[in-house]
Write a structure and sequence with these properties.
binds flavin mononucleotide; alpha+beta; NADH Oxidase; 222 residues; globular
Length: 222
């Protein structure tokens, strides 16, 4: 297969969603660098409130660092087996003025933000973080956004034939200390990426639409 072909998704969106499983074992096959770049390029198109994009990813590839991470993750083997492990973080400091301005300038350069909307954001975003009308803690806010980006990354990865395993089985304090993560940055999950190995995890089923969706008010049948 040529490198151009490799950089095209191999699996349709529907198939990627249907066949993605949280891989518990990985082969040692590396992820080609171009594919990893594409996974980030597309996965990071995830939406965020005011486009603040608070997600940050530490890309861990060196075996000694993966082993160190595994020790912070209840010794789960997939962490040291996968060729790449992302430490998926959410940065609370995106509420500072300089960062908000950086994001606004990004929007202006992309053509999606005009001066009127820029001024609106300069006053509305600090208020969002002061009054927190829709979240109780900054950690809830960073997690909300980072996990959405993680979902994008997992589906994009699967479209390129790359498996993943979202993980909350880790000790936050240990991960933060071992990887120099600042106090204001939350660790939202770990995401090993690579090629699933035997035993391949089986599908565990999903509740029906009727079981989890309500019509018009909570608890009312759809
Ligand atoms: C936020 C989150 C945390 C998870 N933590 C772990 C984990 O620590 N270890 C693990 O092996 N799987 C973990 N999983 C994977 C789930 O067990 C898995 O997604 C679920 O059983 C459904 O299976 P599927 O993703 O293969 O369809 C986690 C999944 C999510 C979304």
């Amino acid at each position: 297969m040529t490198i151009e072909n490799q950089l095209q998704p191999q699996v349709s969106l529907t198939e990627a969603i249907k066949t993605r499983r949280a891989a518990r074992a990985f082969s040692s096959d590396p992820i080609p660098e171009g594919i990893l770049e594409e996974i980030f390029r597309l996965g990071l198109q995830s939406p965020s409130g005011y486009n603040l994009q608070p997600w940050r990813f530490i890309v861990v590839k060196e075996q000694k660092n993966k082993d160190k991470l595994r020790a912070c993750a209840f010794d789960q083997p997939q962490v040291s087996q996968a060729p790449v492990v992302l430490i998926c973080c959410g940065d609370r400091r995106v509420n500072n003025t300089e960062y908000i301005e950086e994001m606004i300038q990004l929007g202006i350069a992309a053509g999606g933000v005009n001066e009127k909307f820029a001024d609106y954001m300069r006053s509305a975003i600090p208020q969002l973080f002061e009054y927190k009308p829709c979240f109780e803690s900054m950690e809830a806010w960073t997690n909300r956004h980072t996990m959405l980006a993680v979902a994008h990354l997992m589906i994009v990865a699967k479209a390129f034939g790359v498996d993943s395993c979202p993980m909350e089985g880790f000790v936050t304090a240990q991960v933060k200390e071992a990887f120099n993560i600042p106090v204001e940055v939350d660790v939202c999950c770990l995401l090993p990426l690579g090629y699933a190995d035997e035993p391949i995890k089986k599908y565990g089923g999903r509740f029906s639409t009727e079981r989890v969706c309500y019509g018009e008010s909570f608890g009312q049948a759809l």
